[in-house]
Specification:
It is a single chain. This protein is an alpha/beta fold and about 575 residues long. Among the domains are: about 80 residues, no CATH class; about 180 residues, Crotonobetainyl-coa:carnitine coa-transferase, domain 1 (Rossmann fold, 3-Layer(aba) Sandwich), CATH 3.40.50. It contains 21 helices and 17 strands. The strands form four sheets. It has a seven-stranded mixed sheet with strand order 8-14-13-12-9-10-11, with helices on both faces. Helix 16 packs across helix 19. The longest helix has 24 residues. This is CoA-transferase family III domain-containing protein. InterPro entries: CoA-trans_III_biosynth/detox, CoA-Trfase_fam_III, CoA-Trfase_III_dom_1_sf.
C-alpha cells in the first residue's frame, strides 16, 4: 500500500468489520452487531501524524466504533429504536488516548494544566495529591522516577522495571544505591543499570515478581510471547470474555430506570456502577458507561496511593468516596454498596480485593439468593489464563512483554535499533478500558435476556495481542514518511515516559496539530469543584442527535463523597 492510497478512516472501518465485529474471537457478541456496525462512519485525515510505527490511530478508532455498534444494539433491544448513525473523526479519536495530558482547569481564569512542573499548588487546590509514597509526578526525585524503565541484563536481554506507585520495594530488591545528585532520567538510570546488569533476566523476573510482588517483565518479542505458555493460554481471547453464571433464582432483567429520564437520550441512566480502580484502564471502563448516563461510585482509600492527576480526566461522571478495608465497619459498608449496585468493576491486581473478602466469587455469592444477578468486570495486565495471571502490571509492562507481546521491540526496530523502546501515550490503557466497557454492555444485554450473573474478563494484554495480530504497524512507505516528517528521531530503551511524553507532545503540537483541533475541545461545567474544565469532547457523534453523550456529575478529588448511593442519582456531591 502506497502513501497515496493509504487512508486512516478506511483502514479503521476495515478493522472494525473484519477484526472486531466478524472476528471469531468475538463470536459471543449479539448477532445484531453485524448490522449495527454498518451505521458507524469514519472521517478524518488520510495519513498519520503521531510518530509511532504502531497503528494507534486505527486501533482506537476501530475499538470506539465497536463500542458504538454495541451501544446501538442495546438501544434497539432496550428501547426499540432504529440503529443510530454514529460518526467518528479519526483525528478526534487520537486525542482520546492523549486526553489525560490535555485538560485545563478554570480555562477562563487561572488556566491550570495537568503539567505539575508548573504551579502544582494551584492544581492541588482542586485535586490534592494522593502520592503517599512520594514516588510519582515530575517533582519526585529523578532517581525514583528512573525506577520505571528498561535496562539490559547480564545475559544480554532487556528487563522492564516499574515503580508501581511506590519505588521502595523495587529499589530494595535491587539493593540499588541512591543517587540524589542525578538531575535527569539518563543520569538517574545509571545506578539501576549497574544493578540490573548483575542479573540474568529470568532470575531478576523471579525476584521482582514472585519475591517482592512488584511489576516487571522480561521484554519479549512478539514471537517469544505467542510461543510462551502464557501466550498460548490466552491466545483464544479477543478484547474481553463474558462468562454467564446461571442461577434459576435470578430472573432476566435490566437495571432500575429513573422515571422519565432513562430514555434513548441517556440510555444507561439508572445503572449503578461501583468501581475499585486506579490508574487508567479500569477507570476508563466506568467513565465510558458514565458517558451514557450510568451513575458511577469510585471507592478509594486514604491508605492506598493514587495518581491524582488522572482524576481530572478519569473522574467524569463519578462520585469518589473513601473506605478503609482494614476496618470491619467499612467492609460491612462496602458489602451493602455492592448489593445495591448493578455493575462492579475491579481494577486492582489479582488477589488484592480477595484478601478483604471482595473477590469475584465473594461478590457473586452476595447475590446467590437474590432475585437478580450482578455484572462483575475485572481487569488485570497479563490475562486470566496461564502462569502470569497473578502478577501485577501496568501498560508499560504489557508493552514490554506482550506489548508484553513485543510492541516495545517493534518500536525500537522501527528506529533502526536492536533494543526495545516503550511507545509513549497510554493507547493500550484507553483501548483496553473501552473494550471492558463494551464487554459490560454485552453482559447487560445478556443479563436482560437470560438472567443470572455475568463476569467480564478484561486485560491489557488482550488489547495488546489484538493490536499485534489484527492491527499491526504502518506499511514501510507510510512509516518512513511519518518518521521523516519529524526528522527521524531515535529514542533509547532508557527513555521512559518522563522523557518521551514531553518530547512527543511537543512534536504533535508542532506538526500533528490536527489531533489537537480546537473543535474537539469543550469547556465542561463542573459543579463539583466550582470551575469548568476544558477537555476533549466525547468521540462518538450521534448524527441524528437523539443520543446525548455527557456526564451526570463533574470530576473531583478522592474522598469527596460519602460512601453511599444517593436516592437522587443526579446529585452532584453525596453528603
Amino acid at each position: 500500500m502506497t502513501i497515496d492510497s493509504y487512508s486512516i478512516p478506511a483502514e479503521s472501518k476495515k478493522l472494525l468489520h473484519d477484526e472486531l465485529v466478524n472476528n471469531k474471537l468475538h463470536n459471543s457478541a449479539p448477532k445484531e452487531i453485524v448490522e449495527a456496525a454498518k451505521y458507524i462512519h469514519y472521517t478524518g485525515s488520510q495519513l498519520p501524524v503521531i510518530p509511532i510505527n504502531w497503528r494507534f490511530a486505527e486501533s482506537v478508532a476501530a475499538v470506539k466504533g465497536y463500542h458504538g455498534a454495541m451501544l446501538n444494539v442495546l438501544l434497539k433491544k432496550k428501547y426499540g429504536i432504529p440503529y443510530q448513525n454514529i460518526s467518528i473523526n479519526t483525528d478526534h479519536a487520537q486525542s482520546f488516548f492523549i486526553s489525560i495530558m490535555l485538560p485545563t482547569i478554570d480555562p477562563h481564569g487561572e488556566k491550570i494544566t495537568t503539567n505539575l512542573t508548573v504551579n502544582p499548588e494551584l492544581f492541588e487546590k482542586y485535586f490534592p495529591s494522593c502520592d503517599i509514597h512520594d514516588s510519582m509526578g515530575p517533582l519526585a526525585p529523578a532517581f525514583d522516577r528512573a525506577c520505571t524503565n528498561i535496562y539490559k541484563t547480564q545475559d544480554g536481554r532487556f528487563y522492564h522495571l516499574h515503580l508501581s506507585m511506590n519505588h521502595r520495594p523495587t529499589q530494595e530488591a535491587l539493593r540499588v544505591e541512591r543517587d540524589d545528585e542525578a538531575k535527569d532520567i539518563p543520569s538517574a538510570s545509571r545506578k539501576y543499570q549497574e544493578r540490573v546488569s548483575e542479573w540474568d533476566a529470568l532470575a531478576l523476573d523471579e525476584l521482582i515478581n514472585e519475591k517482592y510482588r512488584q511489576a516487571g517483565t522480561v521484554c519479549l518479542t512478539k514471537e517469544e510471547y505467542f510461543a510462551s505458555p502464557h501466550g498460548k493460554a490466552n491466545a483464544h481471547v479477543g478484547l474481553f470474555e463474558v462468562h454467564h453464571i446461571a442461577n434459576e433464582k435470578q430472573k432476566a432483567d435490566w437495571w432500575t430506570p429513573v422515571e422519565g429520564k432513562t430514555t434513548p437520550s441517556r440510555p444507561l441512566l439508572g445503572l449503578k456502577v461501583l468501581e475499585f480502580t486506579r490508574a487508567v484502564a479500569s477507570p476508563i471502563m466506568g467513565k465510558e458507561l458514565a458517558e451514557y448516563g450510568a451513575s458511577v461510585l469510585r471507592i478509594t482509600s486514604p491508605k492506598v496511593a493514587d495518581i491524582t492527576v488522572l482524576n481530572v480526566e478519569m473522574g467524569w461522571g463519578k462520585w469518589n468516596a473513601h473506605l478503609d478495608l482494614t476496618k470491619q465497619e467499612d467492609r460491612d459498608q462496602l458489602r451493602v454498596l455492592i448489593q445495591e449496585s448493578d455493575v462492579v468493576i475491579d481494577g486492582y491486581r489479582p488477589g488484592a480485593m480477595e484478601k478483604w473478602g471482595f473477590g469475584k466469587d465473594d461478590i457473586i455469592a452476595l447475590f446467590e439468593n437474590k432475585d437478580r444477578g450482578i455484572v462483575y468486570a475485572r481487569l488485570n495486565s497479563y490475562g486470566w489464563y496461564g502462569p502470569w495471571t497473578h502478577r501485577s502490571g501496568w501498560q508499560h509492562i504489557a508493552d514490554a512483554n506482550d506489548q508484553n507481546t513485543g510492541i516495545t521491540w517493534e518500536f525500537g526496530h522501527s528506529m533502526g535499533l536492536d533494543e526495545p523502546v516503550s511507545p509513549p501515550f497510554p493507547n493500550t490503557d484507553f483501548c483496553a478500558g473501552v473494550g471492558g466497557s463494551i464487554g459490560i454492555l454485552q453482559a447487560l444485554m445478556q443479563k436482560g435476556e437470560f438472567g443470572g450473573s455475568f463476569v467480564v474478563d478484561v486485560a491489557l494484554n488482550y488489547f495488546a495481542q489484538w493490536l499485534i495480530r489484527s492491527c499491526g504497524v504502518y506499511p514501510p512507505g507510510v512509516w518512513d514518511m511519518l518518521w521523516t516528517m519529524y526528522d527521524r528521531p531515535v529514542f533509547r530503551c532508557t527513555d521512559n515516559m518522563n522523557v518521551l511524553l514531553p518530547r512527543f507532545m511537543q512534536m504533535v503540537k508542532e506538526k500533528g496539530n490536527v489531533v489537537l483541533n480546537p473543535e474537539f475541545f469543550e469547556d465542561r461545567e463542573n459543579k463539583a469543584i466550582g470551575v469548568p474544565i476544558r477537555t476533549i469532547k466525547p468521540v462518538l457523534s450521534f448524527t441524528e442527535g437523539l443520543v446525548k453523550p455527557g456526564y451526570n456529575v463533574g470530576t473531583r478529588a478522592n474522598g469527596v463523597d460519602k460512601a453511599r448511593w444517593p436516592e437522587e442519582l443526579l446529585t452532584e456531591v453525596v453528603v
